[in-house]
User: Which sequence fits this backbone?
């Protein structure tokens, strides 16, 4: 089949020689959508090539739809990909000629990143420098940006009020001129931190080393790695490079204590050098681990714990699970722009749509490893994902049909009929450590009673939570029923089966976190089993399809089975 090769010439896309191309897996459309034929022999290769600059939108069985967005292109640009690589990926895998206007648009969009730069001027401090005078003139006349700027030094340089560094980056991103922040960082208060390698026991994995180096080269930004791939070790490696006081922000106290255990085991830090700043303790040490909840707690309309950010001259701030960063922390982060900032996450998807704020305030994506690549290297377990469709009873269907719209999802996702299905799944894996995960307390209590299993939810005290997790790790408890508290930062390497009975509507980030609970490699080399129990002909099915988009993007396929078919032979 004849096709066309495209080249970049002085920033313009030119179509030159005719060339023979093979039947590619990708259809590139002028509306910036990409259609990927999933069963094609080169589909995985194409998925990896487009992942840095395209976002998955829909993932039905045969054709997945991706979209090229400006933010994805700017993330790719900040991570070192240029327009030529993006164009080449599209042309290489496209079945038909790629629309030339789309290629021109990609080149133009990527060229917008870095035309404005934040730079430290030896005499004037923080400045905004333009490589394109007309762009600087445009932004200085913008009514929301003008108050953040000071005097014009010359035609290409304007002073920036230092306190506005974060807010300025937010606004510039919103108007389509993302600034490259080259203003550098304060070193912060020095503190000795080294990685403590035990000969023959552990070393940084290649991808962990590359992630830490990519972050350090950029100064600030986000590292995206699957759950179970050792994001904490990337944080520890960054701390060893910074050798400075470090503030680590985590989702909850259990996660914070997990960080502390890992840092004591894998670095030169002692217990006394690491403080906990939570609802229970208020310790400020050279390395301080604080929960998002405590720093966003308000008293008399004010955030009482903001002084934590100023309590030491921090050299590094680490945001664990950055996709869950509460919105108020963005405001605080805008004031931390002179500190190195590392965001760690399994997915950049934010359900509130604030990915742009992560980009401008924490930093662009610096490193991203596809889950399947890490799995192929043996660092995370392979996973079998199954959606089990349940038919509701006539009474449940009628209750659903007559319910108010806002009550429907809770009704179908907590249907009593699901309990028998969960039991059938447990029977198929009689000796497997299993997590039953849900979002509604009444449903979890009912499951705990039916399965004679302990329940962990938001109000379970930290000490009790940790004791139950320890018993699960030791094999004394085989089944745990858990709420959203287990979605993130809980290290349960022994879990090999998870059964999801209800979730936060169609949250893709939640799906990633839940599967992530299973992905630590198994002692026997076996695979993980991830079940999603879904009520058919209801919103439950619709939301499940939305949640699964993230996993499809990572190369995981869901099998759909009927609940009645679960009574087949027992699985290993």
Assistant:
């Amino acid at each position: 089949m004849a096709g066309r090769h495209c080249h970049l010439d002085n920033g313009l896309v030119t179509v030159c020689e005719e060339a023979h191309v093979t039947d590619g897996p990708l259809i590139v459309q002028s509306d910036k959508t990409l259609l990927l034929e999933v069963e094609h022999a080169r589909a995985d290769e194409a998925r990896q090539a487009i992942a840095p600059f395209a976002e998955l939108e829909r993932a039905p069985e045969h054709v997945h739809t991706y979209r090229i967005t400006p933010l994805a292109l700017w993330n790719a640009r900040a991570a070192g990909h240029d327009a030529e690589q993006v164009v080449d990926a599209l042309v290489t895998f496209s079945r038909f000629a790629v629309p030339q206007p789309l290629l021109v648009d990609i080149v133009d969009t990527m060229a917008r990143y870095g035309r404005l730069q934040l730079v430290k001027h030896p005499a004037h401090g923080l400045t905004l420098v333009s490589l394109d005078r007309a762009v600087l003139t445009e932004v200085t006349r913008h009514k929301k940006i003008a108050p953040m700027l000071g005097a014009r030094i010359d035609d290409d340089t304007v002073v920036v009020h230092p306190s506005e560094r974060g807010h300025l980056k937010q606004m510039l991103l919103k108007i389509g001129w993302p600034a490259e922040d080259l203003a550098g960082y304060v070193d912060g208060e020095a503190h000795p931190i080294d990685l403590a390698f035990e000969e023959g026991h552990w070393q940084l994995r290649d991808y962990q080393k590359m992630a830490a180096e990519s972050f350090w080269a950029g100064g600030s930004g986000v590292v995206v790695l699957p759950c179970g791939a050792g994001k904490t070790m990337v944080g520890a490696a960054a701390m060893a490079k910074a050798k400075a006081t470090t503030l680590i922000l985590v989702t909850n106290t259990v996660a914070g204590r997990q960080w502390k255990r890992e840092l004591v085991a894998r670095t030169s830090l002692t217990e006394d050098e690491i403080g906990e700043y939570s609802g229970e303790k208020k310790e400020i040490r050279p390395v301080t681990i604080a929960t998002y909840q405590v720093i966003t707690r308000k008293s008399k309309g004010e955030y009482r714990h903001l002084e934590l950010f100023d309590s030491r001259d921090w050299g590094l701030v680490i945001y664990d699970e950055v996709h869950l960063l509460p919105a108020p922390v963005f405001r605080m982060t805008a004031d931390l722009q002179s500190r190195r900032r590392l965001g760690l996450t399994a997915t950049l998807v934010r359900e509130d749509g604030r990915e742009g704020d992560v980009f401008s305030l924490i930093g662009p994506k610096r490193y991203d490893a596809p889950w399947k690549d890490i799995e192929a290297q043996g660092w995370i377990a392979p996973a079998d994902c199954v959606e089990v469709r349940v038919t509701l009873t006539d009474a449940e269907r009628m209750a659903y049909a007559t319910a108010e719209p806002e009550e429907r999802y809770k009704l179908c996702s907590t249907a009593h009929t699901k309990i028998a299905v969960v039991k059938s799944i447990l029977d198929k894996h009689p000796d497997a450590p299993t997590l039953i995960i849900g979002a509604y307390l009444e449903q979890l209590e009912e499951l705990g009673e039916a399965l004679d299993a302990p329940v962990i939810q938001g109000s379970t005290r930290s000490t009790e939570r940790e004791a139950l997790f320890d018993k699960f790790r030791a094999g004394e408890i085989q089944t745990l029923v858990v709420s959203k508290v287990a979605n993130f930062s809980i290290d349960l390497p022994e879990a090999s089966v998870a059964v999801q009975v209800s979730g936060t509507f169609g949250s893709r980030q939640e799906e990633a976190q839940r599967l992530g609970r299973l992905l630590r490699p198994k002692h026997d080399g076996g695979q993980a089993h991830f079940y999603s129990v879904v009520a058919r002909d209801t919103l439950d099915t619709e939301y499940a399809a939305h949640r699964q988009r993230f996993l499809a993007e990572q190369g995981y396929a869901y099998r759909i089975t009927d609940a009645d078919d679960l009574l087949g032979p027992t699985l290993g």
About this structure: The chain has four domains: 2-111, 116-181, 206-369, 378-567. Residues 429 and 572 are 6 Å apart (CA to CA).
